[in-house]
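User: Okay, second chain of the day. Same drill as before: sequence in, structure tokens out.
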Amino acid sequence: MLTKDLNVAAKIIRLFIALVALLPLTLARGLGAVIGQWAWLVRSRGSRTALTNLRLCFPELTDRQIKALAGQSMRHWGMTLCEIPGVWRRGRDALDWIVDIEGMDAVDAALAKGKGVIIVSPHHGNWEMVGYWAGTLGPITTLYQPPRRFDLDDMLRRVRGKTGATLVPTTARGVSSLIKALKRGELTGILPDMEPEKNSGVFAPFFGIPTLTMTLIHSLQQRTGATALVGFAQRVPGGFKMVFTEPGPDILAAEPETAVAELNKAIEYLVRRAPEQYQWEYKRFKRRPEGMARLY
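Assistant: Same drill. Structure tokens below.
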């Protein structure tokens, strides 16, 4: 019975993806905004988490401002949900939606070093667009977390590989593949803001809050000399604006705590550029340093 339920759910998800993928970008965003607004109005779990996170990260805002920002965040969450099928369906053609690129000088300089580039793309704006665009710069190996629904894994690998990307799982073998790619001078892609296992991360400030953050990027840089760039695809009228920045020099510090703090600072800088487009619906501060109270 459980297997049957999984198959039915997977078919529904696939049907939703297939239908939404046919929509023009403007209509996809409109539908997503409606879905997000509905999730906000019914006080979904994601909307409640967004409120908690925003109150923690923006203590200078009034409660009214926080609620307005949380509502915007939910609408952008819905837009991302409905944009991604179209990105997957179009593959390289989705790159026509890019209307501007900021920070290309930093990207060119990193590539010119020949020591590999780590594209660090948080859950901000449309991260699938970042992966597709980065795949046009050269061979890229992308770390991904296989979905809980094993029956959707093949689809995810297929659509994300449309620009030639090689997907590797979050395992020791996957990390080994990243190291090899960087040593060849290639690109790698990593989503940095998912909570790692405790032995794979350290607590570092993010919006002033001690946040368990992966040390993988620090380890890769230390072992290969690669350059890390933080970027996101900002949702703008008519498409997306690619925005990239290089973290400060402390990203290369030998101490992981110092390097991770610098990475979080760079991510926070970009999030503040368009806070409504960050995925506040995720329980980013779930694990706390010993002795600190839970936040959720």
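The chain has a mean pLDDT of 93.

User: Thanks, on to the next one.
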